Amino acid sequence: MRxxxxxxxxxAGAPIARRAALTAALGGCCALIPGLAPAQVPPEGxxxxxxxxxxxxxxxxxxxxxxxxxxxxxxxxxxxAWPFDAAADLVRSGSRLNxxxxxxxxxxxxxxxTREHASDGVVAYSAICPHTGCEVSNWQAEPQLLECPCHxxxxxxxxxxxxxxxxxxxxxxxxPLTSADGRLVVAKPFIGRVGFQQS
Length: 199
What we know:
The chain is α+β, with helices and mostly antiparallel strands.
């Protein structure tokens, strides 16, 4: 009876012991084969939306050089930027929804709300079209309008990036700015919903 009970206890524990041994062996194999090594999980901060106090850095180019007011030329095509937490040396590039477009225009043409969110004529909006998520990369210089190249939604950057035409369901989310020592600084998080409609 005791022998049978001991055998049952051993058999009950066997699957657990085998599972632990297999897990350990698999982990060892993954460590030896680079292609199977577990992916490093990026810090949560790289996916976080822009925060008050973040600086802005170009998406292309000198990755961690904060943009200044002078880096955004008057009446020219938008610059695409990432938010940058300088204290943590962290570019918030873990989500494409963090892409920000920057324009510098004559603030005399801004409506009151846009003027409040701008810094010396520089305005910032989400670079992602709310329609299907394309990057708003076209600039129509003569009417001073932003255009999505995918389905041709047009946005007025002087009036809070409201939709003037096209299928976009809403305006681009605004990112209020300020400046410190000539550098562009995020004043508040995005105003409005960032992202696009799911089909």
